[in-house]
Amino acid sequence: MNHWSAVAGAAVFVWLGMVLAISFLEAPLKFRAPGVTIPLGLGIGRLVFRALNISEAVLAVVIAVALVLGSPGPGVVAAVLVAAAALVIQVVGVRPALTRRSDAVLSDATQAESGRSRAHYVYVALEVVKVVALLFSGVLLLGF
């Protein structure tokens, strides 16, 4: 493993850890905490996911640079491209719909009673795609 592959691998696993910790641990648990109302949880979620998406974009750039300077196999490149594409789709295609939905809930709390939107399920599905792609690319970068 050359040092660029090591940099890419480290960044991949940091990205994977962030997605797992925030999307699959923090996000669902925050609404179970005592005193956290739906408006408060949505406000926190907006801030956290904006920061997560910015961090993911930075990590994707670090990985891309490391892969360009290194000599990754085609499987690594394909898996990283899948993860990056999922992120772009989330930010450009799904987040605006989620923002509109949370705006509606924040202006009228009864909107929350209708349950989660389809956009939310699409976002979660893309998170699963990212997790699988990042895990696959990380394992390949480790040389297994």
The count of strands amounts to 0
Overall pLDDT metric: 92
The helix tally amounts to 4
**Domain module tally:** 1
Class by SSE composition: mainly alpha
Radius of gyration: 17 Å
Name the overall outline.
elongated
N-to-C SSE series?
HHHH
**Low-confidence sequence ranges:** none
Query: Percent of residues in beta strands?
Result: under 5%
Helical residue percent band = over 70%
Query: What's the story with the biggest beta sheet?
Result: none
Provide structural commentary.
The chain crosses the membrane at residues 6-27, 47-69, 75-98, 119-142. It comes from Mycolicibacterium rhodesiae (Mycobacterium rhodesiae). This is Transmembrane protein. The chain is mainly alpha-helical. It has one domain (3-142). It has 4 helices and no strands. It has helices at residues 3-30, 38-69, 74-107, 118-142. α1 (3-30) packs antiparallel against α2. The longest helix has 34 residues, at 74-107. The radius of gyration is 17 Å and the shape is elongated. The mean pLDDT is 92.
Features:
83% helix; transmembrane helix; 4 helices; Transmembrane protein; transmembrane; membrane; 144 residues
Task: Give a short summary of the structure.
This protein is mainly α. It is 83% helix and 0% strand.
Topology:
Elements: H1 3-30, H2 38-69, H3 74-107, H4 118-142
Helix pairs in contact: 1-2, 1-4, 2-3, 3-4
